Amino acid sequence: MVGMVKRIAKVIGSTIIYLAVFGLLGGIVSFIFDVLGVISRAVSDPLFYVLWAVLGIFCGLFSYDSGGGILAPESKTDWRSRKDAGTIGLQVVVLETLTLIALSIPSALLISDSFSQSITFFVAVFIGMLFAHIAFRP
User: Fold this and answer.
1) Percent of the chain at pLDDT exceeding 70
2) How many domains would you assign to the chain?
3) How crowded is residue 5: how many other Cβ atoms within 10 Å of its Cβ?
4) pTM for this model (two decimals)
């Protein structure tokens, strides 16, 4: 039981790290685009949404794969090739979704300059996780 609690904490921690890394990357790229001003205003607004959506999808893909590896450490092969990969993947989706919900509201309201872009990022992370759960199972 203690081992499972540690693994759950590691999944939540790795999800937070992925969100922070991809969020920082998005912030840097957004800052560069904004400061350089090389993109017209008509193009820049949709571009920022596309940027955050793409980063969110990749964040969801990577965090899902990492979370499954954490929950199934005893696997000698890739965890997605196990018979119980669907169950493990569903556990990862639930844990990471709860983490997303817990972090998205304060992040969008308190930290971000753009509420709608923050929501775009978090929804894209969720979509990336769901896509990985459906597409990458045996």
Assistant:
1) 90
2) 1
3) 9
4) 0.88
